[in-house]
Write a structure and sequence with these properties.
By secondary structure, the chain is α/β, with parallel strands linked by helices. The protein contains 4 helices and 8 strands.
């Protein structure tokens, strides 16, 4: 029997970026403490068979260091989108991820967009980059780790949040 696959979303971990602790006012003593807590909190909610979409700024380090010191310790299958600090990712990685999950079309990117694919049909947009400092519009949501006590968001959490949001400003009514 195969376990159910759950979707999770996160952004802006900033592994190996010592200045992020001060910049984003993170409650960690140092980089090691931050790394341990981000990995622990991730693994606390993400299972081995789950899928996690990481919307950019995952790490400042090179690919080898990131893989050996971080990724191999994190549960789930991680899908990385390119953010502004992801020099370790290759050109095969994308800037945008989209998928229909549980009947809902979802678009994920590092940057907050004013409109996004199928936004006129009330699709959801999940973004990072702003560390909780940008007010979302319509069915959009900041999924950065700074906005969720350094945990990834589950699909259930995203659904609950979106149920209380206004429609997208460009929604086509009466279709």
């Amino acid at each position: 029997m195969v376990d159910k696959v759950n979707f999770f979303f996160s952004a802006a971990h900033h592994f190996f970026h010592k200045n992020i602790i001060e910049y984003a006012k993170r409650p960690f003593l140092n980089l090691s403490h931050m790394h341990e807590e981000l990995i622990r909190r991730h693994n606390e909610v993400v299972g081995k068979n789950d899928i996690v979409v990481c919307a950019g700024d995952f790490s400042f380090a090179g690919a080898e260091r990131t893989h050996k010191e971080v990724i191999q310790h994190m549960n789930g299958t991680l899908h990385f989108l390119i953010g502004c600090h992801d020099r370790w990712l290759s050109n095969k990685h994308k800037h945008l991820w989209s998928k229909k999950i549980e009947g809902q079309y979802i678009v994920v990117s590092h940057y907050c967009l004013r409109t996004w694919p199928k936004s006129h049909y009330n699709s959801w947009h999940l973004f990072g980059h702003s560390h909780g400092r940008l007010t979302p519009i319509g069915k959009s949501m900041d999924i950065g780790v700074d906005t969720n006590a350094f945990y990834p968001y589950s699909m259930d959490e995203v659904s609950k949040y979106m149920s209380g949001r206004e429609d997208n400003p460009n929604l086509v009514r009466g279709r």
